[in-house]
C-alpha cells in the first residue's frame, strides 16, 4: 500500500513532465518536418526540405561558426577563472563573505540591465572609447558592437562577465565541504596554493566541475539569443548570429517555423552531444 500511494502521488509530477518537457521536445521534431510560413498560415508536410534549406543557407553556417567560437572561448575562461576565484573565496580570506556577495551581483541583475551596461560601455561614445581617448589611444577606438570583427567578442565578454561570479560562488560552496586536512597535508609536504588547488582539490570535486560546466554549456548554447537580440541583432550582417538567435529570428521575425525548428533540432542534438562529451571528460577516474 505505501508503495502504491507513493506511485499515485508521483502521477501529477509525471504528467507535468510529459506535457511540459517531453511534449515540447517532440513538437520540435514534428514542426521541423513541416512547411509552416507563420502561426496562422496553412501547414503542409515538407519532409527533408527544411533540412536541405538550412544546410544550403550560409547564414546557418555563420551561426554554427559563431556558436562554436563562443563556446570554445567563453566556457574554458569562465570555468577556469571561476574555479580559481572559488578556491580563493573558500580559503576564507579577510572579507570573504563580502566577496561572495560581490561575485553574486551579476547573477542578480536582469538581462536587459546587463545589456544596457555593456551598451553604455561599448557604444561609440561609451566608456571604453572614452578611456582610450583619455589615455592617448584614440586610434584604437571602434564601434565595438557594430564592427564585424568585434561584435561577437563583445557578446562573449558579456557571457563571461555575467556567469563567472555565480559559478565562482558555486565552486566556493563545494570547495568549502572538502576536508581541510587535505590542504594542510599538502602544504606540509611543501605544496603551494597553486599545486594544492589543481592537484589536490580539483580531483576531489572533479565530478562537480563537470556538472557546473554542463550547466554553463547549456546556458551559453541556448541562452545567448537574448544577449544577441538586445545588443547586436545578429549583425553586422551575420557576424554575431548564433544558433539560438537564428531559431528566434526565423520563428518570430521571418515567420518560417519549419526552418526555425530544424535549427532547433540541430541545436538540441548539439546540446546532447556536448553534455555527453563533458560528462565523459570530467568523470571520476576511480
UniProtKB/TrEMBL annotation:
<dbReference type="Pfam" id="PF00528">
    <property type="entry name" value="BPD_transp_1"/>
</dbReference>
<feature type="domain" description="ABC transmembrane type-1">
    <location>
        <begin position="64"/>
        <end position="278"/>
    </location>
</feature>
<feature type="transmembrane region" description="Helical">
    <location>
        <begin position="150"/>
        <end position="173"/>
    </location>
</feature>
<feature type="transmembrane region" description="Helical">
    <location>
        <begin position="7"/>
        <end position="34"/>
    </location>
</feature>
<feature type="transmembrane region" description="Helical">
    <location>
        <begin position="208"/>
        <end position="231"/>
    </location>
</feature>
<keyword id="KW-0813">Transport</keyword>
<feature type="transmembrane region" description="Helical">
    <location>
        <begin position="101"/>
        <end position="122"/>
    </location>
</feature>
<dbReference type="InterPro" id="IPR000515">
    <property type="entry name" value="MetI-like"/>
</dbReference>
<keyword id="KW-1133">Transmembrane helix</keyword>
<keyword id="KW-0472">Membrane</keyword>
<keyword id="KW-0812">Transmembrane</keyword>
<keyword id="KW-1003">Cell membrane</keyword>
<dbReference type="InterPro" id="IPR035906">
    <property type="entry name" value="MetI-like_sf"/>
</dbReference>
<feature type="transmembrane region" description="Helical">
    <location>
        <begin position="251"/>
        <end position="278"/>
    </location>
</feature>
<comment type="similarity">
    <text>Belongs to the binding-protein-dependent transport system permease family.</text>
</comment>
<protein>
    <submittedName>
        <fullName>Transporter</fullName>
    </submittedName>
</protein>
<dbReference type="InterPro" id="IPR050809">
    <property type="entry name" value="UgpAE/MalFG_permease"/>
</dbReference>
<feature type="transmembrane region" description="Helical">
    <location>
        <begin position="68"/>
        <end position="89"/>
    </location>
</feature>
